[in-house]
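Hi support team,

I've been running sequence recovery on a batch of backbones for a student project. Most finish fine, but this one hangs at about 90% for roughly twenty minutes before it completes. I'm not sure whether the input is malformed or the queue is just slow. I've pasted the structure tokens below so you can try to reproduce it. Let me know if you need the job ID as well.

Thanks,
M.K.
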């Protein structure tokens, strides 16, 4: 018995020793992203296409009284539009299948005010289908925007319209393959045509659509579609239409009611906090930065020459994607059914700037060390393997580690990109960057939140033989799925 006991003790000790080499993964921290939100984070940049009879009226918002006969883009080519998106580096397209004017771009059974009543494709067209197929061919994700507000439908304001709207969503969810987004505008109720003389209909947007029931349709029919709305739950509006998030940007969020409103559903009501999020918020609700490429969301001939340049788009990229959010560009076809050549050039230049600037990670040629590492399952090589699913982690008790890189030959750079491993939460609160310049460490940058992505753009390129990323505040152990040092290219 004594020898058997000794053998059992020895075996137990050996098993314990073996397992001690495999470090346990960090404990998840705070609210966590869902699988569909993780896919959304990977998308980073996508576009929002506005194209209805409103384009031919040269308006921003149609009243719902436009004759469908005016909608006849004779040169429409979804493949050419999607090709421009892809050249711009966009990874997805959200089509406005129905805007506030109520005109549906697919032959819906829910209303006669739809594309079948127009001369487009001799009344046999389905623009949602053409955009969806063009996206699939080009490898872009596809999503839809179906406006809850409908300025054409005479039923709007009654529950009968809500049933119509839900049926429109069911059609879009079941006829066009997997969607990465279901986009819902915050504008609801007001003046419109409503099937007759112009009048005004007001609704309580907090209760009228019974969003919990309506969005249950999304969850059932399109479980990987992220819901966007100023009262939505997967992706929040950033609080402006200028294309940038706050300098400090948390993906976690706790909504609060705006002044004078009751909290009747889990929505983003007080938009003053949307650019920043909530540190330690109850839910993972990252920000989308929506901004039109031109001054308007729809195409207007008088706005020719006013498209944002490639350099302006790159700056917005740094202030949206580079702050853990996503960039949603409003891109509108003209009356031909094509993108203006000016817009195509801007997108192409933007794509070249992003792809070229982040192509060569200088850290891949550096010697890298850390103040500590959790274990062999979390090696420093994961920082430069260009894989979001692998990550380096510090030990459980190490909340303020540093990672240091050195080169034998001095390197010149002006962009620093960091990514946390967000499946375990947004953990880091602040960090500093130091560079080895002329034989001594010099602080060159400091910032707060990281999350899915943080890009530091230096005011001017620096030349250094070393770089140090020092976490200065974190409540828990630290994770990084990527670190990159880059030099911005010029067009």
């Amino acid at each position: 018995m004594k020898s058997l006991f000794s053998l059992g003790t020895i075996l137990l000790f050996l098993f314990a020793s073996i397992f001690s080499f495999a470090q346990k993964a960090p404990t998840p921290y705070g609210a966590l992203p869902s699988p569909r939100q993780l896919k959304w984070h990977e998308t980073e940049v996508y576009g929002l296409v506005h194209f209805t009879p409103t384009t031919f009226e040269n308006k921003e918002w149609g009243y719902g009284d436009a004759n469908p006969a005016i909608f006849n883009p004779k040169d429409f080519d979804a493949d050419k539009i999607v090709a421009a998106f892809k050249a711009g580096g966009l990874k997805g397209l959200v089509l406005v299948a129905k805007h506030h004017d109520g005109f549906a771009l697919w032959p819906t059974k829910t209303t006669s005010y739809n594309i079948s009543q127009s001369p487009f494709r001799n009344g046999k067209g389905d623009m949602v289908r053409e955009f969806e197929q063009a996206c699939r061919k080009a490898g872009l994700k596809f999503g839809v925007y179906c406006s809850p507000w409908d300025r054409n439908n005479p039923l709007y304001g009654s529950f009968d319209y809500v049933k119509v709207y839900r049926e429109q969503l069911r059609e879009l969810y079941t006829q066009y393959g997997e969607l990465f987004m279901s986009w819902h505008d915050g504008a609801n109720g007001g003046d419109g045509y409503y099937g007759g003389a112009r009048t005004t209909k007001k609704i309580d947007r907090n209760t009228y659509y019974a969003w919990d029931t309506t969005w249950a349709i999304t969850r059932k029919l399109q479980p990987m579609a992220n819901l966007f709305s100023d009262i939505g739950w997967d992706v929040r509006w950033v609080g402006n239409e200028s294309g940038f998030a706050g300098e400090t940007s948390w993906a976690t969020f706790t909504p609060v009611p705006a002044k004078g409103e009751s909290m009747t559903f889990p929505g983003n009501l007080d938009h003053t906090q949307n650019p920043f999020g909530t540190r330690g918020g109850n839910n993972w609700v990252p920000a989308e930065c929506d901004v039109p490429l031109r001054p308007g969301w729809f195409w207007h001939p008088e706005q020719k020459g006013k498209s944002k340049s490639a350099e302006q788009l790159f700056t917005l990229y740094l202030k949206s994607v580079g702050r853990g959010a996503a960039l949603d560009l409003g891109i509108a076809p003209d009356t031909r059914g094509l993108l203006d050549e000016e817009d195509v050039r801007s997108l192409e230049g933007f794509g070249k700037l992003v792809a070229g600037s982040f192509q060569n990670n200088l850290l891949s040629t550096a010697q890298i060390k850390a103040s500590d590492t959790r274990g062999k399952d979390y090696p420093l090589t994961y920082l430069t393997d260009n894989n979001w699913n692998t990550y380096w982690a510090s030990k459980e008790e190490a909340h303020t580690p540093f990672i240091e890189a050195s080169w034998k030959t001095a390197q010149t750079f002006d962009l620093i990109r960091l990514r946390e491993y967000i499946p375990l939460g947004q953990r880091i609160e602040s960090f500093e960057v130091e560079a080895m310049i002329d034989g001594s460490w010099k602080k060159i940058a400091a910032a707060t939140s990281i999350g899915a992505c943080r890009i530091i753009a230096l005011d001017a390129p620096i030349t250094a033989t070393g770089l140090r990323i020092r976490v200065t505040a974190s409540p828990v152990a630290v994770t990084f799925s990527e670190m990159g040092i880059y030099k911005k290219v010029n067009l």
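--
Follow-up from support: It reproduced on our side and the slowdown came from queue contention, not your input. Residues 241 and 415 are 25 Å apart (CA to CA). No action needed from you.
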